[in-house]
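Chapter summary example.
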Amino acid sequence: MKARPILLSSAALLLMPLAARAALSLAPLFSDHAVLQRDKPLPVWGRADPGEKIAVTFHGQTVHATAESDGRWIVYLAPVPASAEPAELTVAGTTESTVVHDVLVGEVWLASGQSNMEWSVSSLASEELKLASVDLPLLRQLKIQRSVASAPADTVKTDGWQPATPRTVGAFSAVGYFFARDLQRKLGVPVGLINSSYGGTEIEAWMSDLSRQNTSCAATLDARWKKAMSEWAPERIAAYPAAMTAWNNAEEHAKATHKKNLLPWPQPPSAPGWPTEPGGLFNGMIAPLQPAAIRGIVWYQGESNVGRAPEYAELFKAMILAWRQNWGDPTVPFYFVQLPNYANGKAGARDWAQLRDAQSRALELPATGMAIAIDVGEANNLHPTHKLEVGRRLALLAMAQLYGGTADFSGPVFHSATPEGPALRVRFTHAGDGLVSHDRPVQALELAGADKVFYPATAKIQRDTLLVSSPKVKTPVAVRYAWSNAPVANLYNGSGLPAVPFRSDRWLAGRWLGVKKNAR
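The structure predicted for these 520 residues follows.
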């Protein structure tokens, strides 16, 4: 439900020239059932007539502003503590007022990325869907409708804030829902989820033009975009909606019959106004949300950039830094999901492993965290169904790094590999009470000698270390784990959290670290 305007007296309205009156409006985040961020200054903004006096009242505060020459206005309310008691946010102009009802104060998180973040609760397997179909009135989502823009937009359409009920929860981001549900239960305060995601999209679309242009690969990106546009004739663009409709129908039929959709997914046109446009999703779906007060960001994207890992390593960090700068807070927490195991047509190939490695470079930035999903993907399914576990692992990161939780939040993380006879001793951080292999001995290990040729390896678990060896590598110098598209990744710590895929070598990174091109 949208905020409802309250008109002032007709006499007062008649005193104003008709052409001078413009409707008082609020930014899309401020509508009935909203959750606002606790304990931070609260920006509230919108549009009105140029020069119009605005008064914003919330939780006993009233703050004033004057609309600028372009009609924009903004106020900053003082921080408000968490409150599950519904309140009203009133915005009064010269001729009318708007009241936003049932506003709570708690923790607000932005959930963004491509299809695995957009994937809705209604698409879950029956067991997870049942777990989500409960009344959680203190958990609410604002779904940002898909929008592409060539310049930063002032506003964007939304589905309105929706409290989580069996009737509404189907439209929630599944990963976002389970993440927010765990936070709400552990923190005991309202949690708001702003779901701004779009399936099948590249990171370039989520970056501002400035942040993209300031990267070393800007010229390559521009050239690729120009070439792609040249390949989309008008008649091909015109045919795309019908192709997409056919694919959606086939997808629904496949779900209903429990069969695989054999139609290839139609790639969106490379043309301005489509989600492939560099900067288009930042302009249309992120810029209108700024400078909202939020606690942090969760992100699940990268599938559409597989095959371009060296670029992604730079672009991802540049995007995070730019979003933080745009929000005016260089410490906004940013937690992301490392891509799961997916064969992509060839389980033993390395392109997904390389993209996972590129994602992990973002951990060089402060206030970042990476949820590991290498064990919960599905080798032949780009959209694995285990969203509950992914959301739980994101929540573990937030609880441990931000909210002072004490539970383990990470599986084993590679620390070092040192020679020990014909083997390598591999040590980890976050090994907890010791390493555990599920179902069978540790899988997906490889060793290489100085020739840089990797061979399958085996390992003995010795408390919190692995002793890794291979009969084909007499003097090992490098070790890799889960370094393929769809590995059998079965190494965990005692808390049941999976080991992070790793490689001790830097050979493969030659294109951005300057090592030999013939490295494998």
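To summarize the output: The longest helix spans residues 234-257.
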